[in-house]
Amino acid sequence: MTDLPYLDTGLPVEERVEDLLSRMTPEEKAGQLTMYFYFGTGEPVPEDFDIESLPPEHRVYIEQPRKVEAAVAGGGVGGLLFVKDPKLANLLQRRAVEDSRLGIPLLFGFDVIHGLRTIFPVPIAMSATWSPEAVEAAQAIAAREARASGIHWTFAPMIDIARDARWGRMIEGSGEDPVLTAAVAAAQVRGFQGDLGADRVMAGPKHFAGYGAARGGRDYDDADISDSELWNVYLPPFKAAIEAGAGNVMSAYMDLNGVPASGNRRLLTDILRGELGFDGWVVSDANAVRSLETQHFARDQKDAAARALHAGVDMEMAAFDPAYDHLTQALAEGKVSTEDLDQAVRRVLTAKFRMGLFEKAFVDEDATPAILGSTAHRDQARSAAEQSFVLLKNDGGALPLEAGKLTSVAVIGQLADSKRDTLGPWVFGHDTAETVTILEGLRDRLGDGVPVEHAPGAGIVERIFPTPFDQMDETVQKTPENWDDDAEIDRAVTLAAGADVAVVVVGQRQNQIGEKASTSTLDLPGRQLEQLQRIAATGTPVVLVVMSGRPVDLRWADANVPAIVQAWYPGTRGGEAVAALLLGDVSPAGRLPFTWPRHVGQLPLVYGHYRTFEPDEQGTRYYEEASTPLYPFGHGLSYVEFEYANLHVDSESIPVGGIAKVCVEVTNTSERTADEVVQLYTHQRYGTSSRPVRELKGFERVTLEAGESATVTFEVGPDQLRYWSATTGGFVQDATTLDIWVGGSSAAELATTLDVTA
Fold first, then answer.
1. Cα torsion for 237, 509, 134, 604, to the nearest 10°?
2. Would you say 253 and 269 are in contact if contact means Cβ atoms under 8 Å apart?
3. CA-CA distance, 359 to 353, in Å (whole number)?
């Protein structure tokens, strides 16, 4: 028992929060609403270090850690970012718990996006598994490693819908479809949070809302989204994440429909809390509150703080000089209400109590190495990668390769042996020495009996505008200076000409996608296409492996290369997984989570478009080239054949609000076990509003042994059929006739109908 009720574990969380809140000064309350970047190591600056001689922009980074540490000791910080060392976390936590007046522990947040030490395939690749089970398992491992490192909270999942492949951050999400993204979002939240035990972290779905619709795919640009698209496309993944129990939501940077998202009360309070039922705490994206002044929305930083707090931003994330430092002054001047301030603090404290930080604030440093070094975690990463690969093309059974018939293999491309690029962007606790590249994976799989030779070939040109994230990563790989493209391409072509098969790895480096990595082109960087064309001209069979997080221009390859595999950025054990796929140890079952355009001029291109005028001419909208995708949404081939039959609905009609069951029989007609992703699409023929030509309504990844059949059943009812209509300004479900398709992609042809009656 304790004299301080907020430390009494026998009391309900609500009572503990209210007791602690009642003891706090306005300054301490504002402190709890502040999250700082932390740029230090915990070590003091040497006394003989001449800070004054540094330029001001450098000096501020040296001085920042000391200022943050002093604020922590004074109870003026609620959370910290960029702390992933358990020893440092404990040192800083000790300052908060032992030195501050009330001993409120810190929340340590971090970008644990697709793994911490064990790196899983990038999120868009995990979405390509179409397996919520695989996604949940991956994020449970990420959570375990994060918590063992002292991290309590991850800024993930990123569940912005991305319909323009120029936008770099599409790699962090699940593509273009709200149903797939919602399923993956819920799985990630479950994986990260579980029961919020000692090996889990709080999930922070982001960015609320509409960030993925940035104009022209340009990161940070504004978004203009109709209410219909907002409710039907962009909000469902957040609804699913909230229903899965997400404890945190991150607000977005950009203007949405003319109002900065981090200052929009309609968005953050009326919709997020009122309509979607979120009861956790909202954190701003980095410096987004300060940016309200930059965006000419707020008069100054005090006004920015007041507007953000009133809108519903409970915690500000800032590198320097938080706007929320002005909250106490705004409170004294009546620009902020005590009710708004207390409500925000209440939400942050509730999260800390839910995480058990008042009982166990410190991490067990001795246990960390074993958890981070788990071989079981690495095995799971390999399995996830194997499930994520999409076989885009496989003419004439070019894949799988037969190891017993190979006498030599040429592996071409810089990405084929780049450990850092194999991991993809948004990794911060990785060890590249553990990474298995595609070259290494093939050599290990084929053994000493089959020579596997490598030529890096064409250089990959650097970004014109460098990314700041490279400054945080000493393992970034680049094309060496003075690289002789002509000579290296010649060498690659010669090597390929003398081999049984050429595995050509093309794509973009990991720093050419992600935040601040939007692009104006989908062309392969540098002379990779030219190199591929010359290799194909040698007559050596070519297998093309694409390493990217967005679609790239594969028109020539699709017309001329027999086998194409989308390998994404496959993670720590990615090279082993690629080798397993190419040599037939596993059958590919990944499916595209986006529509693959022919070239950049088609963007944005989505499968779920409307019929509009002259729908039969949809594919001829451009005069010089078909306005159809190169590969449709949901596409992916297998090493086996699947037969779909006996599609039927358990009733010819259902009333509005009723539920029908759609059943289909799927048979593996081949001689090996493999997975298939069964997909259900619908189209509403008439109603209150027009509806897209096809909409994904259900999917299931199933494993079928050779010759095995299975009946897959989907429900179709109000959860699938209601939509937000601009006609009524709300959700409706219509009496109508539905077209229903089931198959292996959005181009499925097996069809039936269902009547929905009034």
1. 30
2. no
3. 8
DSSP lists the bridge partners of residue 454 as: 411
**Greater pLDDT, 556 or 63:** 556
Question: DSSP string covering 52-90, please?
Answer: GGS-HHHHHHHHHHHHHHHHHHTT--SEEES---HHHHH
First-to-last C-alpha distance (Å) of the chain: 62
SS3 247: coil
DSSP string for 550-588: S----HHHHHH-SEEEE-----TTHHHHHHHHHTTSS--
SS3 188: helix
150-178 per-residue burial string, b: 16 or more CB within 10 A, e: under 16: bbbbbbbbbbbbbbbbbbbbbbbbbbbbb
pTM check: above 0.90: yes
Query: What is the pLDDT, as a whole number, of residue 2?
Result: 66
Tell me whether strands 736-743 and 751-757 are parallel, antiparallel or unpaired: antiparallel
Contacts of 366 (CB under 8 A, 6+ apart): none
Q: Confirm if 214 and 173 have CB atoms less than 8 A apart.
A: no
Upper half-sphere CA count for residue 326 (Cβ side, 13 Å): 19
Rounded Cα distance, 282 and 264, in Å: 12
What per-residue confidence (pLDDT) applies to 1?
47
Running DSSP on this structure, what letter comes out for residue 273?
I
Q: 749, 322, 391, 757: which is closest to 566 by C-alpha?
A: 391
Closest CA to 136 of 87, 186, 86, 209: 186
CA distance 535 to 504: 9
Q: Is 285 a catalytic residue?
A: yes
Phi, psi angles (nearest 5°) of residue 413:
125, 140
- Res. 301: pLDDT tops 90: yes
Catalytic residue, chosen from 285, 314, 421, 675, is 285
**Do residues 353 and 17 make contact, with C-beta atoms less than 8 angstroms apart?**
yes
